[in-house]
Amino acid sequence: MKKSIFYIALSAILFSSMEVALKAVSGQFNAIQMTCTRFLVGGIVLIPFALHALRQRGLHLTGSFLKRSLLLGLMNVVVSMTLYQLAVQNANASVVAVLFSSNPIFVTLFAFLLLHEEIHKNQVAALLLQLTAILVIINPAHMQAGLLGILLTLAAVVTFALYSVLAKRGCVEYGSIVTTCGSFLCGSAEMLLLILLSWAEPVASLLGRVGLSSFARIPMLSGYTLQDFPVFLYICIGVTGAGFVCYFKAMEISSTAMASLVFFFKPMLAPIFALLFLRESITPEMAAGIVLMLAGSLAALVPGLLQTRRQQAVSIEPPEAS
Questions:
Q1: Given CA atoms 126, 127, 132, 133 in this order, what sign does their dihedral have?
Q2: CA-CA-CA-CA torsion for 185, 87, 140, 132, nearest 10 degrees?
Q3: Dihedral through CA 200, CA 202, CA 203, CA 207, nearest 10?
């Protein structure tokens, strides 16, 4: 339990700093370029660790692993992250970030349907608190985001949640590092093919006509400077590589529902990081939402911690004298 909490906390910190890091280099890179590059670099950095994990388990990569990695990469890097970028273009970025944190609702549902994991009362209570927090933060009565942006965000959340649950099976068999590395490399390779396709004149013209010119003639080698290189490395290696590994490591040694607590803590930590590094103010609605998110996190964590403590107390209790 302590190990899973450690991985959850570390991935929550890394994921929560993502918006601050990305904003630091905003305008330097095309959105799709950054998505492809950070997953590609993150996957390459993980290769030595993945090979070491394979040797430890005595495993070899198979055709089924490649097929699964292609599917996971398609769902996460290509589909979910592309939908996320489209959502940011059609809605306020803060609204998109908060809505994306509703991931545990769909993770719990898919884990129940596909992995047959139990849904406990405290998890239901936590999810209801999280949903209430999201509604408080976005304030539907005075919502600025358009319907298209909200639908795109929800589609990104659903596909990412499905990706998380399906990746659970790979984590059990090959481990979190191997599964993450495989999905990153396959997803970035698939996106590279789409980037090359974006340079085809008929495709570029069509994207321009339908208002998606940012997806036409996507650059791959522009925007890099020595000044922004440390932030770029942090995004690729820290947020993307280490963040996802910790997330799936928590899932590997606990459950998908427990690992998804990362998205409970993210709405609390991200505004704090934005306040400290970007001087963005925390609104009363955001503060109320943070409190509700904290309550949801406690509702999900406390029963498991109490149960673990009881089990440890029983295991160390001396046997009665006969």
A1: positive
A2: 0
A3: 130
Is 159 within a domain? yes
Given the structure tokens 């358009």, which residue do they identify?
A: 146
Instruction: Write out the residue range of the structural domain in which residue 41 sits.
Output: 2-308
Indicate whether 321 belongs to any domain: no
What is the distance between the alpha carbons of residues 294 and 287, in angstroms, rounded to a whole number?
11
The letter for the amino acid at 171 is C
Dihedral sign from CA coordinates of 207, 212, 213, 215: negative
Tell me the pLDDT tens digit for each residue of 229-255: 888 889 888 888 888 888 878 877 877
Q: What is the CA radius of gyration of the chain?
A: 21
Contact 161, 107 (CB under 8 A): yes
**pTM surpassing 0.90?**
no
The dihedral built from the CA positions of residue 209, 215, 220 and 225, taken in this order, carries a sign that is positive
- The DSSP secondary-structure symbol of 190 reads H
Q: What is the pLDDT of residues 127-144, one digit of tens each?
A: 888 788 878 877 766 665
**CA gap 4, 269 in Å, rounded:** 19
Give the residue from 293, 83, 72 showing the smallest Cα distance to 179.
72
Q: Taken in order 116, 106, 130, 246, is the CA torsion positive or negative?
A: positive
Calculate the CA dihedral of residues 24, 135, 159, 8 and round it to 10 degrees.
60
Q: Report d(CA 58, CA 226) in Å as an integer.
A: 41
CB 115 within 8 A of CB 256: yes
What DSSP character marks residue 141?
Answer: G
| CA distance readout (Å), 64 to 46, 166, 168, 184, 322 | 20, 14, 15, 16, 56
In a domain, 162, yes or no: yes
What's the domain count of the chain?
1
